[in-house]
Specification:
208 residues; alpha+beta; Alpha-Beta Plaits; 4-stranded antiparallel sheet; 7 helices
């Protein structure tokens, strides 16, 4: 007997779920990559998918739409005629076709899409040693950085710069594309900080 699953609601549901998860993963890729780069020790890959940021709202919309329609197909009432003719109606569906599986996939997709709001939790808190620095040695410099697209990107820049000897404090804002570094110029300099930021995969366009 031929398998017609492709043409059945079950086959359609599988395709919708797969497309929804792929869209959610693609939407979060530009924000997940910095954390993965930190955990793997390959810092230079942090901004590898920042070019996808403009498509993020569309990918989220696709993911939500696909999963919402999959839930609609799963929960919509069955036609009376279909119930009367379905001999296997009482059989328990396979796990991959169950509401439980669709629920797990939906939660996973939501977690991926929300990653920018909790991605900073993957970055260890910087604990700089408190030292007395003469005020005439402390300098602030602002870097314009290309590639920051979310809070996770900010965390990656802060983590990299604050790990340097002589750096006193770092703030970063992806919305303005800028990072402000406060440092002891007796222990490091603006060019060394620039190289450290560039090594993450994000690129310093200008500094002042």
């Amino acid at each position: 007997m031929m398998n017609h699953e492709k043409d059945t609601p079950k086959g359609d549901s599988k395709r919708l779920i797969s497309a929804g998860v792929l869209a959610a993963f693609a939407a979060s890729l530009c924000c997940i990559t910095p954390a993965l780069a930190l955990l793997s020790g390959v810092s230079g890959l942090a901004s590898a998918f920042s070019w996808m940021e403009p498509a993020r709202p569309w990918l989220i919309a696709v993911s939500v739409g696909m999963l919402a329609f999959a839930w609609y197909q799963k929960l919509k009432p069955r036609p009376t005629a279909g119930i009367e003719c379905a001999c296997e109606a009482e059989q328990k569906p396979p796990f991959l076709q169950s509401k439980a599986f669709l629920g797990i996939v939906t939660v996973l997709a939501a977690l991926m899409m929300a990653f920018p709001w909790y991605g900073h939790l993957f970055y260890p808190e910087s604990r700089a040693d408190r030292v007395v620095i003469p005020s005439d040695r402390v300098e602030n410099i602002t870097y314009e950085i290309e590639g920051m697209t979310c809070v996770a990107c900010e965390s990656h820049i802060r983590h990299a710069a604050s790990s340097m000897a002589g750096v006193v404090g770092v703030t970063a804002d992806y919305r303005t594309g800028k990072a402000v570094v406060r440092f002891d110029r007796g222990r490091t300099d603006a060019e060394a900080i620039r190289r450290t930021i560039d090594a993450t995969g994000y690129k310093v366009k200008d500094s002042r």
